[in-house]
Amino acid sequence: MPIYVISDLHGDYEGYLTILEKIKFSGKDTLYVNGDVVDRGTGSVKILRHMMQFANIYPVLGNHEYMACRCLNVLIQEVTERNLHAFDKEFITGLTEWLSIGGQEMINEFHKLSSDEKLDILDYLGDFSLYEEVEVSGQSFIIVHAGLENFIPHKSLDEYELFELIFRNPDYEKVYFPDKYLVTGHLPTSAIVGNPNPHRIYRTNRHIAIDCGAGYDGQIGAICLDTGVEYYSKE
């Protein structure tokens, strides 16, 4: 029963299906999706609706899902005098920030859904976990979208603030845990200083960085935690 992790799909539905085909994903496998499923590409809702069908797919919250939830839960409302306060300066600022990082594609897809389908998507996004801890063949892995800002070695993962987990990149030159691997997305591996293999999974100092640049002319990368074998949507 292999355990896989992918990250930062950014609406690349075809790339997502390619990865599932390459790993021969089945009901016997476990797949962790480490955030940023949505935005930029045109298949965000398609991916989410596919993921929702599988109890063995475990989504972890990314900053794009967080921003989408905040905005869509307001946009889904009918504008009336009673709820006009929801469309305040804070909402406009958040919506503007989300649109600047690719949220328009998600909005376009979302508005084509029925009312019930919209609520199902929002309920699903609201159930994304903040992190996952996984034991595989005697090895320990922490799966978190971005990193562990304000890291303290003996600090419980539950003590970290949401923003510390989904918005801040880790220090790849630092070993956070001598007995655990930190599996992250968020920062495209092409943007990691000193990475000789852009758009491929980057491993160093017990880090496994798996955002291979989907949405930035890159691809989706996946790793099997049992074997360390890597899979790519364009290779």
Oligomer: single chain
Q: From the 3D coordinates, which CATH architecture would you assign?
A: 4-Layer Sandwich
Number of domains: 1
Strand content: 15-25%
pLDDT < 50 runs, ≥5 residues = none
Quote the average pLDDT: 94
The main β sheet shows up as: 5 strands, mixed
Structural class: alpha/beta
H/E topology pattern: EHEHEHHHHEEHEEEEE
CATH fold-level assignment:
Purple Acid Phosphatase, chain A, domain 2
- Determine and state the CATH class: Alpha Beta
Q: Fraction of residues in helices?
A: 25-40%
Strands ordered across the widest β-sheet = 3-2-1-9-10
Name of the CATH superfamily: Metallo-dependent phosphatases
The beta-strand count equals: 10
Could you describe the 3D structure shown?
- This protein is of the alpha/beta class and 235 residues long.
- The chain has one domain (3-232): Metallo-dependent phosphatases (Purple Acid Phosphatase, chain A, domain 2, 4-Layer Sandwich), CATH 3.60.21.10.
- Helices cover 29% and strands 17% of the residues.
- The chain has 7 helices and 10 strands.
- The chain has helices spanning 13-22, 44-51, 63-75, 89-100, 103-110, 115-126, 162-166, and strands spanning 3-6, 30-34, 57-60, 132-136, 139-143, 180-184, 202-204, 207-209, 221-224, 230-232.
- A 5-stranded mixed beta sheet has the order 3-2-1-9-10, with helices on one face. A 5-stranded mixed beta sheet has the order 4-5-6-8-7, with no helix packed on it.
- A hairpin with a 5-residue loop joins strand 9 and strand 10.
- Helix 3 (63-75) crosses helix 4 (89-100).
- The longest helix is centred in the first third of the chain and has 13 residues, at 63-75.
